[in-house]
Amino acid sequence: QVQLVESGGGLVQPGGSLRLSCAASGRSVNDMGWYRQAPGKQREWVATITSGGSAKYAAYVKDRFTISRDNAKNTVYLQMIGLKPDDTAVYYCKATSRGLIDYWGQGTQVTVSS
User: Fold this and answer.
1) At 87, is the secondary structure helix, strand, or coil?
2) What's the pLDDT score for residue 1?
């Protein structure tokens, strides 16, 4: 089993910044990533980072969001800048174990509003 605990969400004004964190405990994980789900919409992929540090991003967040990880702390981060109202969503952390099982965090709310 892998447990994921997210933190760092909140209310921010348009153009502002937030940094999300997701700490993993339990089994070792390989890829870690972030997804988000806005009200009334399906969950969508935001970014993924491998254990080696290779990152990929959805087109709509590239150049605004940066994913990183600290393997020693089993923690993945999502630095978000230039936030827009459309970025309002619950952000979920996902980790894939070495056994290729996906685990999800409980989600953290990000609200971008003036």
Assistant:
1) helix
2) 87
DSSP tally for the chain: helices H, then strands E: 0, 11
- C-alpha span between 84 and 35 (Å, rounded): 16
Q: What pLDDT sits at residue 8? A: 96
Q: Are strands 10-12 and 108-112 parallel, antiparallel or unpaired?
A: parallel
Q: Which residues of the chain have pLDDT under 50?
A: none
Cβ atoms < 10 Å from Cβ of 79: 14
Q: Where are the alpha helices (DSSP H) in 67-111?
A: none
Helix (H, G, I), strand (E, B) or coil at 85: helix
CA dist., res. 108 & res. 76, Å (int): 14
